[in-house]
Amino acid sequence: MPLRLLTLLVTLLHVYTGLRLLPALATLTGGWPLLLAALLLSAATMPLPFIGARAGARRGGPAHGWKWLGLLSMGWFSSIFVLTLVRDAGLLLAWALAGVGGASIDSAAAQSWSAAAVALVSTLVTLIGFFNARRTASVVRVDVPIRGLPASLEGFTIAQLSDIHVGPTIRRGYLQRIVDAVNRLGADMVAITGDLVDGTVSELREHVAPLAGLRARHGTFVVTGNHEYYAGAHAWIAELRRLGLRVLLNEHVVLQTRNVKGAQTEEEMLDSALVVAGVTDYTAVHFDAAHASDPQRALQDAPPLVRTRLLLAHQPRSAPAAAEAGYQLQLSGHTHGGQFFPWNLFVPLQQPFTAGLHRLREMWVYTSRGTGYWGPPKRFGAPSEITLLRLVPERL
């Protein structure tokens, strides 16, 4: 959307919110000036992060602190605007029910106190959401039951990171805390399922550097998300490889996960192995035709005797093609679990899964709520996570 049109839309939404709340608050002592000031500040600063995104690495964009303020305003206004709509619908319903039932309500009082509640709840949710977003993600432990899992793979662990979005408000220190938390887990492998960055390599090279410190027995594997393509995917792929991470572009690796004592044949050795495949983002073809996402191609020349196959795919909607290709498990992200209300209600319109472990035919799909956040530093009802998945045999 053009910046001028976006600014006009933001302004009109703020005007609507002000007209619906400020007159009602005028009857309460001291309420309306604070809300008016907050709305004016929000309307003025919300476009600033988008100015920065268009300016890229060039000089002349808004200062970093102003971008922070704009993103905070975005999170706060998102809540107050939605709750204003909910308030209007509630008042209309109350008026209609009172008219049908012949009852009388104190309309002025209802409007005043409901307006105050909207302002207070929006601010409280934003403050709680800020704390949830800025804390280091908690570890979520998930057992994944795999049918026919070889005994040598039982207990294999995968630390999944997703949707960190290193960028305007997520910097080196935030990422370092995540890396330290992952290293304490002692996982067999680390999987990063896309949307690692929101910015160019030149802007963020210093801030993604802690990724070089990730430690796991079999290393760290990465797939691209849609935000990598917004930020210049080819440059980021080269940078991540320079840091020692393995980027999988519709390809796979075979991990020999255990030292098999006494194995005499290639079949015995391969039975203990794990295919780890990765696909480009579901929408990558719109940026580079050579990067069209293809779970089947990612298995090309994979040893048929390796029965356990894991796919890293940024978006859950890669799952039908992955199930058809014969994977046992897909790890995804992208959804953020909705991040905060009401966006969690819209995720199912685009993705088959919002968060957690789900079964699709013979394949499991785990969708992470994300380890960071996008845009406003705000999470409410969808906490961030570092996921530690453990492969276990399915009990029939």
TrEMBL record:
It comes from the Bacteria. This is MPP superfamily phosphohydrolase. The keyword Lipid metabolism does not apply. The keyword Transmembrane helix applies. Keywords: Hydrolase, Membrane, Metal-binding, Transmembrane, Transmembrane helix. The lineage of its organism: Bacteria, Pseudomonadati, Pseudomonadota, Betaproteobacteria, Burkholderiales. It comes from Variovorax soli. The chain crosses the membrane at residues 30-53, 74-98, 110-131. Residues 157-337 form the Calcineurin-like phosphoesterase domain.
